[in-house]
Amino acid sequence: MPGPLCGVRVVEFGNLIAAPYAGMLLADLGADVIKVEPPFGDLGRGFGPFVGGESAFFLSVNRGKRSVCLDPKDPDAHRWLTELVKTADVVLSNLRLGAMERMGFGEDDVRRLNPDAIYAVVSAFGADGPYADRVGIDVIFQGESGMISITGHEDDPPQKTATTIGDFVAATNAALMIVAALWERRHTGRGRRVDVSLRDGLFAVQAGWYALAFTAGTQPPRTGTASPFLAPNQVFQAADGPFTLAVVSDRQFRLLCDVLQRPDLVERFPTNEDRMRHRTALTDALSAIFAEEAAETWVERLGSAGLPVGRVLGLLEAIDDPQAAHNEMHVTYHHPRAGPIDAVGSPLRIDGAPARAATPPPMLGQHTAEVLHELGATSEEVARLTR
Q: Pairing relation of β-strands 349-350 and 242-246?
């Protein structure tokens, strides 16, 4: 079945992760996403490891798109890029400040060409303001949003989050704002500018931690895998390895103590306030108990009692466990050059089925001729521009 964004055309001037992943989310939802790349391609194409000469990094965030490779500095190529932008419902970019304007596709340029287009920009720190022209990348945003300061154990050096979370949060925010702007345009006929800051997205996902900081007026301590709000809520070590346990209410804590046959713990730590105040003593008591049995035993025993408990899985274990497999989170695409490629599926589902583009990530310039012909270019023009 066609996706809900079928008929929407997105022209993406994307690089690396933020705009490309936003474009992929829109492609998963049925949009025709045309990725405009310079002759050397998206920088992500140069990141290893490589599969059949194609970057696994690039393949992970660009499925479902068509790639048009044209040099905007070439007057003839620029003319056809202009025609392409005229057909866009959305113009999406995350290039450095001023790059779109230098190409002739800044917001004012696009408004003259296509007044009703949604003009979406993902930037480092914001479209304007004192940091607008700073270069940024995920580790910078994690550091300057406070995220690194709260990650890790209290007595250890602070750590970054393993994934480039700022890029994926900003991409998701951008896709949400684009869909909202498209919905509004159905009623008003007016295009909008959508601005998303990578750093701002990391402020937003730390709302709870900032609530602690605002309330206390000081920096909250790092808590490792433990929650700053609830106890016990962390990773515990069983006899053969780690597992996770989260208790979110006094009732659940009483249930935990029933399973463990330790009513004395309820007497010592009856409320979450008590458990947070004496978390070290509680953790020590529970750790001694959990060290007596295997992780799988605790997961089964506590899970059967209705407690939130889980395994600590490696990436390949996690993506192929029964529920992930049922949800089609591990998918295989057949790429014309790389052959079968494994990828993470879409977390979005519509009518019980994954919202996922059917086509693999494009090779560089794979669809240049196809798109130029759609725009009305002659065979001779296409041949010259694609040489």
A: unpaired
For residues 132 and 97, what is the distance between their CA atoms, to the nearest angstrom? Answer: 7
Interatomic CA distance for residues 81 and 351, integer angstroms = 36
Same fold yes or no, 9-205+322-386 and 233-311? no
Is residue 155 among the annotated active site residues?
Answer: no
| Digit-coded pLDDT (tens) for 184-202 | 999 999 999 999 999 999 9
Please, what is the end-to-end C-alpha distance for the chain in angstroms? 37
The string of pLDDT tens digits covering residues 372-381 is 999 999 999 9
How far apart CA 50 and CA 22 sit, in angstroms, is 23
* Class of the domain covering 233-311: alpha beta
Query: Which helix (H) or strand (E) covers residue 58, if one does?
Result: helix 56-59
Tell me what the pLDDT averaged over the chain comes to.
97
- pLDDT interval class at 38 (50, 70, 90): very high
Q: Tell which residue, 367, 346, 373, 370, has the closest CA to residue 30.
A: 346
| Closest by Cα among 205, 225, 202, 210 to 154 | 225
Q: What is the pLDDT of residue 381?
A: 95
The DSSP output letter for 321 is S
Q: What is the third-level CATH fold of 9-205+322-386?
A: Rossmann fold (3.40.50)
What are the structural domain ranges in the chain? 9-205+322-386, 233-311
User: Quick one: pLDDT at residue 361?
Assistant: 97
What amino acid is encoded at 343 in this protein? Answer: A
Catalytic residue among 32, 42, 138, 167: 167
Q: Which two tokens stand for residue 197?
A: 């800051």
